[in-house]
Amino acid sequence: MLKQFFILCSGADKDLLEGCSEGEQTKYVGIGATVFFTAVMAFLASSYALFTVFDSIYPAIAFGIVWSLLIFNLDRFIVSTIRKRDKIGSEFLQATPRIILAVIIAIVISKPLEIKIFEKEINTVLLKEKNAMALNNKKEVANYFKSDLDKNKAEIDKLKSEIINKEKEVNTLYETYITEAEGTAGTKKLGKGPVFKEKIAKHDLAKKELDTLQKTNLVKIAEMEKNTKTLQTDLDKKVTETQPIIDGFDGLMARINALDKLPWLPSFFIMLLFLAIETSPIIAKLLSPKGEYDYKLEDLETALKATIEQDKYQRTLLVKTSATMHDKVYGDIADDKQLYDLQRKNATDLLELQSNNFVEKQKKTL
């Protein structure tokens, strides 16, 4: 049963191959098995590729079945349409388009399987790329909010600086009236004289201004800090919202690009393996000598071609002979005097009836 299935996969004529030797049948069983297992590999490759796209097993399997049947049909067609000829050059020329198609199929099949084989290495490359993308994303988002944050920070620093400068002024005035009272500076008279009262009045005024300034600026600083926190929250929210997009950067195209960044030699040898598998049935048919099946198939095709050409020639002769016979028959009829007189009488009667009918119509119009 398995043997018959692989013969079916090879595209060979089952009835014709049954009359061939066991070795000839084994050759086509091997070709059919190669075609079948290529389709199996195509199913695995396409299913994995679609799974990385949809993250769902059901559409991946459905597409994998359709794709494998398509590859199976193409391979079966390629193998079954190659005919053995007397010259290797003509055989190779005949097989060249099919070899090119087989190469394309091999590349398409091998790429998803390469991605699966080197999955761990590809994940490492993708992780590095995701980390770099996350850092760049944070920088871009931070740059977007940077102007507002810097503006708030500068305004807060300005308000704090005003308070600090005023505190320094108040402290300076405090030291001035204290040293005046102690007699260590200013008029250098011990006691609370007019100068002391003047200096303490300046200090008290500056202290009131400091209290007012602190009250006003602290309210503004609190409002600015609140705005800063809001901006920082928006910044963090923006980074959080964009992070899932970066985390999801592991689709089919991303993995193919990551595969290209790995050493090319292992991937190249895997592609060569699939190329050898895909083209092996074609190469086997090209290199193998004409077998019993090829001779029988050629005999059937040439016999059919001879029959068709013979039928076509006979139909052409039949048409020519029939035309010649009809020309001769109608020539003999044209020379018959009795038929001529009868035809002349009928024509005369017809003309007489037409003339009478025309006269009657003319009378009606008068």
From TrEMBL:
It holds the Pfam family DUF4407. Residues 149-176 form a coiled coil. It comes from the Bacteria. This is DUF4407 domain-containing protein. Keywords: Coiled coil, Membrane, Transmembrane, Transmembrane helix. The keyword Coiled coil applies. The keyword Cell membrane does not apply. The chain crosses the membrane at residues 28-51, 57-74, 264-287.
